[in-house]
């Protein structure tokens, strides 16, 4: 099974799990060696950006602790995960990303 298979929106299973707050799925995917933590979807958004924008603090922490994640990488509009988290009032996520 290809853990980085892209759907029609260019999202991977890790991006979807991060966006939906599925911590158990994120943990499972992080155990694999073939998962690209920095995979960009068609909007230039990464799994950590999705988790930050939706306020999934535990998932942001998991991704950061795992390593290989660039928490400052902006999407194609120029917004970083920290900016999405702050704009949406997810200050626990902001604290993790600072």
TrEMBL record:
The keyword Transferase does not apply. Pfam families: Ank_2. Gene3D superfamilies: Ankyrin repeat-containing domain (1.25.40.20). InterPro entries: Ankyrin_rpt, Ankyrin_rpt-contain_sf. Keywords: ANK repeat, Repeat. It comes from the Eukaryota. Signal peptide: none annotated. The keyword Secreted does not apply. ANK repeats lie at residues 9-32, 43-67. This is Ankyrin. It comes from Choiromyces venosus 120613-1. The lineage of its organism: Eukaryota, Fungi, Dikarya, Ascomycota, Pezizomycotina.
